[in-house]
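queue> holo job accepted (adenosine-5'-diphosphate)
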Amino acid sequence: MALTDPVSVLSGVGPKRQAALASLGLNTIGDLLFYFPFRYADLQVKDLATAADQEKLTVKGIVVADPVVTRFGPRKNRLNVRLQIDNMVVMVTFFNQPWLKDKFSQGVEAAIYGKWDAKRKTMTGMKVLATQTADEPSLAGVYPANKNIRQKTIADLVKEAYAREGQQIPEIVPAGLRQRYKLLTDQQIIHGMHWPKSGQEAHAARRSAIFREFFLFECQIQALRLDNDATQNGLAIPFDNQQLRALISTLPFALTAAQKRVVNEICADMRSPHHMNRLLQGDVGSGKTIVAAIVMYAAVTARYQAALMVPTEVLAEQHYAKLTKTFADFPVQIALLTGSTPTKARRETLAGLASGAIDIVIGTHALIQKGVDFAALGLAIIDEQHRFGVQQRKIIQEKGLKPDLLAMTATPIPRTLAITTYGEMDVSTIDELPAGRQPITTTWVRRNQLSGAFKRIHAELAAGHQVFAITPLIAESEKIDLQNAEQLYADMQATFGQEATVALLHGQMKPDEKEAIMRAFDAGETRILVSTTVVEVGVDVPNATVMLIMDADRFGLAQLHQLRGRVGRGQAAAYCILVADPKNEMGVERMQTMVTTNDGFKLAEKDLELRGSGDIFGDKQSGLPEFRVADPVTDFATLQAAQQSAAALFQADQTLSAAEFAPLRAWLARQQQSLGSLD
Ligand code: ADP
Ligand code: MG
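queue> job finished
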């Protein structure tokens, strides 16, 4: 018998139940023991002295006499239980549930929900919430269950698993750490989590369980990192420094110190045989695109290909146009590949990628479809990586030669959180904006103050600048989206039509329509662009100085910051106007936060604070790992301690050879096995 035994060794677990348990990720005895309640049934016990007649309530007491079943008809009977509650003995009657009798032997403590008869001092029992002998727990765990298996079944199986294995649970967290952080043993954690006698006991167990979960996660990350280092399984890309300098000298601006630093970090990775797996973070407008261009060119000088994958066609098109300009005087073949690339062009591009005739390709998801093959892909870059799933990152990383990977993001995961949860990635951060940027002035107005805000737009148009006007995307209804966008378009047309051309861009347009509209705006032919959120990511039109956002309270802070980042890219002062009538305090606080801070990292932290970690990262594929008991945001201090502990442990003993680490070593080996078997 061991923790690794399958759940089928437990009584009543046949193939069907085993499958049901598997659907919850419960395959072994150990899985069950660490499958903790997500809450405890709250037995809010009522003091009978204050209870009203016929009130439904929960009481708790000790059974003081053996229960009696009285039959008074073919299927009619009643069960009487005498319960001592405080210093009163109360008769509790259950109708037609004679089997409950077995629960109420003398001396058992019982929690019962029922109806109180104040005159007779009796109760009609409606539900037995818990019964236990005196030294059993008094909080009832509630387990996450699903339609295949009942919560009660899980609770029973956990009990049986503990009865079999509870006395021989190996200690995974090294004793030194347990001592240092005053942690419970695994056995104590399991007992305290499943059957706490009090809230404090549950809390203490949870505290240790959280550390344990983070610690094991961080140990995995350490192991991954060592593995990556050891195998030297990446490409060494011997790029030509001379040529890189030549490219940089043709840029219309000097790189910021931060841009230089991250280019060096990335280039050092590329040159080494170590497989690059790097996250480039930089606030909106910090100039990540040019960094991407430089390092892609580095790959090209070493005769490798480079690919840049972006989340939208508009953005792909724009990057393609920009990079074509950047490389105008250099012998670089660039191609664009999106879902709407015409068949003939697509065929040519695929052939060019396969033969190596194309050096750099910019594209959308189309880049990772089957049939896209590279002669020598050396570097893959993913822009706005938070828009892609981890899986997509993996696919592009596995193309051909196992290219070096650079993921870029402006959705700032607070630095510390990135390091602890993206531990397997190295992180480079552009922490300064190009010089001469004007800060963006953000104002928040209510809908009925809109005309005041329009003054600013008139002034900016008069100065020759351009304007974005955004309505939110409402996921549930494309129809309403369109209506909103069309309404705003009509309003803008009516107000500014005399002085500027207005265009409308929305998600239901055909890609070539969108492209044409975007191009006209880029060229300054259109001065006001009304849009749903398709312009949210990456779009770069430096002459645009106003970002007007309708119903701004419908956006998250990170998204608002992204939108705001579309302006303030040139030398002129820029304005972000938030139009919102927030319905709650949180909405008000979000608007105020936007008005008072321009720092993407601070905003991200605030967003986390206001909305909880589930929200900012969007869907579950955002890249932040999921934990069972722990939460990387609210338990951040513990996460950090666990990370430091794991790092120190591996630094001192890379192979975890000491005898005391044997259980940890075995656990890590098992994790790798189960990962391997998934493929
Ligand atoms: P993001 O990091 O949001 O992707 P971009 O790469 O789109 O930002 O850059 C924003 C703007 O700043 C672009 O117009 C770009 O040409 C410009 N830019 C980039 N680096 C510098 C620099 N060092 N000095 C001045 N302007 C720069
Ligand atoms: Mg960008």
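queue> The longest strand covers residues 122-132.
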